[in-house]
Specification:
Strand content: 35-45%
Order of helices and strands: HEEEEEEHHHEEEEEEEEEEEEEEEE
Structural class: alpha+beta
Number of domains: 3
Oligomer: single chain
Strand order of the largest sheet: 2-10-13-12-11-14
Number of helices: 4
Length: 390
């Protein structure tokens, strides 16, 4: 009898242990399921606001300005402050022991003006390398051999520039470098680099300047004491890019955006030339003069492509009926598919197009894409289209 009672007690203990084990396993399964749903199946990211995606081409640029020189390599007693804004008829100062090193040769100007009158379109031009070498050697007589623009608009503007420079030369010569007064308005600079006559804003026709910018031997530290006034309302740039790097189609009269340091500047393409798969582009800008006022040569980025975009994990991409897209979790918990246009993938991050008012074109058909604050499913392989998530 005692043996039977002892056996019953043992069975009751085993039964209690089994009940507790089952309850524990049940709770454990629920926890595992919740963890799976929360961290695997239901793992989402909230889509941030769009960001600007850019593709840029790095290159070197030569700056062209509207510059009028009053002295070159001279010792000057300056009345005005360097880099200050100068109006017409402002007292600039005097040149000590005026030697006319720059060679204020009025005959050169008259010769250029005469060529403009004749419109000799077949004149021979001096190679740019020879002109640069002449300036380094202070041989300014060859500057008169610079080529002449053969287009009406260029001729008119260049003629005005020559006449203005001619008046400056005359006034400095007549005063023997004393009590110099400004004949034009702009920003005053007390250094010149010797390239003012070559890289001039009025000489942007690329047919006249056969430049290999990357290989041209230019003295980028050729600054000397001098005096010049630069029009700060506009400037030009000439630069080269490899055709294989160009995605955007550039044309004369079209816009072009460049970046200097942290400054973006949009201008107009004035001329473009293709030679041996290298584009040479001349562009005109009428803003942000301060970003280029100091130097002649700059390293720049051409903004070749720019658009609004979203950043999403590469692993969140999936396909539905041969269309690339993502699964998103609606506020109701239902999983739906949204197509996306992938621009590029970098470092396991997909850059996708923002679209136009939430729409993108897929095979010529407008379709709804993702929008700010959508919940993107991180692991699309773990869910099914139309599934209801908690």
């Amino acid at each position: 009898m005692n043996k039977i009672k002892s056996k019953n007690k043992t069975n009751k203990k085993k039964f209690k242990i089994n009940i507790f084990s089952l309850i524990f396993l049940f709770i454990l399964l629920i926890l595992i399921k919740n963890i799976y749903v929360k961290f695997v199946k239901n793992n989402t990211i909230i889509l941030d606001s769009p960001v600007i995606y850019e593709e840029k081409i790095n290159t070197n640029a030569i700056i062209l300005k509207d510059e009028h020189i009053y002295a070159y390599d001279e010792n000057i007693n300056l009345n005005a402050k360097s880099t200050s804004r100068i109006s017409v008829d402002t007292s600039l100062g005097s040149i000590n022991d005026f030697t006319n090193k720059f060679g204020l040769n009025i005959d050169i100007i008259n010769n250029e003006l005469e060529k403009l009158k004749e419109k000799n379109k077949n004149q021979e031009t001096l190679p740019i390398e020879d002109i640069v070498e002449s300036i380094h050697d202070y041989n300014y007589s060859k500057i008169g051999e610079l080529p002449i623009d053969n287009y009406e608009d260029h001729e008119i503007e260049y003629k005005k520039y020559l006449e203005s420079q001619n008046n400056i030369y005359k006034s400095v010569l007549e005063s023997n470098g004393q009590k110099i007064k400004s004949k034009n308005a702009g920003v005053l600079f007390t250094e010149v680099d010797g390239y003012e006559d070559i890289f001039n804003i009025y000489r942007m026709d690329l047919n006249l300047l056969d430049l290999d910018i990357e290989n041209l031997d230019l003295d980028k530290e050729s600054h000397k004491n001098g005096l010049k006034i630069v029009n700060n309302n506009y400037f030009g740039m000439i630069f080269t890019v490899n055709s294989k790097d160009v995605k955007k189609s550039y044309e004369v009269g079209g816009d072009i955006t460049i970046k200097i340091n942290d400054t973006y500047i949009t201008g107009t393409v004035k001329d473009i030339k293709l030679n041996n798969k290298i584009f040479t582009i001349a562009a005109y800008f009428d803003t942000n003069f301060d970003s280029i006022s100091d130097n002649r040569f700059y390293n720049i980025d051409i903004v070749n492509f720019s658009t609004k975009s979203y950043k999403i994990p590469e692993k969140s991409l999936t396909t539905n009926k041969d269309t690339v897209g993502v699964y998103i979790k609606k506020p109701s918990g239902v999983v739906v598919f949204r197509p996306v246009e992938v621009i590029t993938i970098k470092d396991k991050t997909a850059i996708v197009n923002y679209g136009n008012k939430g729409l993108i074109k897929i095979n010529g058909k407008e379709m709804e894409t993702i929008n700010p604050y959508d919940e993107i499913i991180k692991n699309p392989k773990k869910v099914k289209l139309g599934e209801l998530l908690e």
